[in-house]
Amino acid sequence: MTKLSRQDKIDIYNSWKHYGKSSKQLAKEYGVCSGNLRYMLSLIERHRLKILDKGHITYSVEFKEAAIKRVLFDHETSYRVSLELGLPNQGTISNWIRNYIKDGYNVINHKKGRPTHERQRQANPGASKANQRPRTRELEAYCSDRIRKKIRRLGLSKN
């Protein structure tokens, strides 16, 4: 799926609203999923074009918890709740619910992206054992000889 620009979204909405093009036809024309396109059209229809000006939003734990409770306990559909809250994707609440159940029915804001470099080192115990192996005198002598040889070569190239 291609990422649509703001202008593309406005053009799609205008084609759908004013020229009567179907969402399937527009999805094929712009190379996007028709279900996601229908959600976007419903979102713009409900919140107008100002919804397109929203950037990346980090939602609070309380906001997520309220949305999850509306779906799980008040038996509202996740699609409807997503539209009312103006979430950028209809699958966002489903992801929140999955993480809510996985985390023992607690809402936790998970950090995005890859773990930091230190965490990667701690997660790989095999690499730390390789660095902590005992060094023998023979190995140290061999390494010292290699270092001296490199220094001599570097010294010769400068002259």
UniProtKB/TrEMBL annotation:
Listed transmembrane segments: none
Top-rank taxon: Bacteria
UniProt feature, compositional bias: Polar residues: 122-133
SUPFAM superfamilies assigned to the protein according to its UniProt record, in alphabetical order: TrpR-like
Gene Ontology molecular function: sequence-specific DNA binding
PANTHER family attached to this UniProt entry: INSERTION ELEMENT IS150 PROTEIN INSJ
Protein name: Transposase
Organism the protein comes from: Lactobacillus pasteurii DSM 23907 = CRBIP 24.76
Region Disordered: start-end pairs: 110-139
Database matches in InterPro entries: IS150/IS1296_orfA-like (IPR052057), Trp_repressor/repl_initiator (IPR010921)
